[in-house]
């Protein structure tokens, strides 16, 4: 399992991007994790699935609402990673009005979740292998803070906790 001091695993996430005005997609586009984190501070949070109750009602909104405070604390980008395809993540981004505040990145085959060792088996609930709920601060590709939720919990991966850590 990934821990503080480890580099993020080599992986490619997918991002759905729309062109303003005409509705034509210029995505899904691959996001090379190593290249995209190089020289940046990233507030990354991961969750089991798009449009799920806790994720939609609490997790994503907290990061959207605190985006300016994260920037003020030195965070370059906020990433939401979920085991969904880029099209679902794009639709969820529109629904959650993430705009330029949170990058919604799909880990469609759970390759990133598996490489971090932070998977959650929801096969019995019809959802297959998903990502555990967690948050982390990443500086130049290295994990500096890691908050992993217990099963069914939403206590330490919220925006307020990670923001306090970013300020510290």
TrEMBL record:
Domain named Thioredoxin: residues: 2-168
Top EC class, one word: oxidoreductase
Catalytic activity of the protein: a hydroperoxide + 2 glutathione = an alcohol + glutathione disulfide + H2O
Keywords on record: Antioxidant, Oxidoreductase, Peroxidase, Redox-active center
A single GO molecular function term of this UniProt record: thioredoxin peroxidase activity
Entries under InterPro entries matching the protein: PRX5-like, Redoxin, Thioredoxin-like_sf, Thioredoxin_domain
GO biological process annotation, one example: cell redox homeostasis
Enzyme active site: 55
Known EC number: 1.11.1.27
Top-rank lineage group of the source organism: Bacteria
CDD domains in UniProt: PRX5_like
GO cellular component entries: cytoplasm
UniProt xrefs under PROSITE patterns: THIOREDOXIN_2
Function: Thiol-specific peroxidase that catalyzes the reduction of hydrogen peroxide and organic hydroperoxides to water and alcohols, respectively. Plays a role in cell protection against oxidative stress by detoxifying peroxides.
Family classification: Belongs to the peroxiredoxin family. Prx5 subfamily.
Name of this protein: Glutathione-dependent peroxiredoxin
Organism from which the protein derives: Rhodoferax koreensis
């Amino acid at each position: 399992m990934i821990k503080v001091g480890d580099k993020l695993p080599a992986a490619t996430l997918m991002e759905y991007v729309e062109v303003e005005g005409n509705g034509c997609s210029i995505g899904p586009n691959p996001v090379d994790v190593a290249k995209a984190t190089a020289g940046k501070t990233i507030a990354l949070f991961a969750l089991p699935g798009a449009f799920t109750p806790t994720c939609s009602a609490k997790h994503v909104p907290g990061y959207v609402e605190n985006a300016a405070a994260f920037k003020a604390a030195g965070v370059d980008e906020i990433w939401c990673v979920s085991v969904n395809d880029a099209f679902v993540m794009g639709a969820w981004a529109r629904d959650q009005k993430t705009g330029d505040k949170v990058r919604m990145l799909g880990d469609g085959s759970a390759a990133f979740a598996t490489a971090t060792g932070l998977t959650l088996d929801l096969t019995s609930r019809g959802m297959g292998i998903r990502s555990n709920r967690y948050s982390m601060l990443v500086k130049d590709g290295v994990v500096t803070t890691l908050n992993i939720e217990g099963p069914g919990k939403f206590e330490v991966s919220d925006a307020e906790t990670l923001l306090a850590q970013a300020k510290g």
